[in-house]
Amino acid sequence: MSLNSELTTDLKNAMKAHDKQSMGVIRLLKAALTNEQVKLGHDLNSEEEDNVVMKEYKQRKESIEEFKKGNRDDLVAEQEAQLKILDKYVPEQMSEDEINQVVKDTIAAVGASGKSDFGKVMGAVMPKVKGKADGSLVNKAVKEQLQ
At residue 115, does pLDDT exceed 80? Predict the structure, then answer.
């Protein structure tokens, strides 16, 4: 089942259950997918769909951090609720061990030797883990292994 049809089914179920929070999140996700489809000019493949979902997920996580800094607990709770709904659609993420292995292999492949090669390693790692790993975790793994 494609992501769009899964979202349509979930939207119908949320409407029947009068779940306004789920309806809102699903509608926003469907709109983001449609906007990306129009921007690219073709039907989205699963990787492109995953990128859109991850972008929405990341936006919510960043909003939570900002709202925590501003002591806006009401908005933090709302964003966390949206994040729980989005969790269902987020592609499976790599474990820290898997990320470390990819970083280790990439460092060996590009011949990196120190902190000065950070950009070169990140540039090679990110396409391999795009949509499957959080960039901050990858950044941390690269820094640790280049020390």
Answer: no
- Two structure tokens written together for 23: 């309806």
Query: Structurally, what CATH architecture does the domain formed by 96-146 represent?
Result: Orthogonal Bundle (1.10)
Residue matched to tokens 């002591």: 71
How many CA atoms lie within 13 Å of 138's alpha carbon, on the beta-carbon side? Answer: 23
Mean pLDDT score, 60-81: 92
- The span from the CA of 76 to the CA of 73, in Å, is 5
Domains 3-86 and 96-146 share a fold: no
This prediction's pTM: 0.74
- What topology does CATH give the domain 3-86? Hypothetical Protein Yqey; Chain: A; domain1 (1.10.1510)
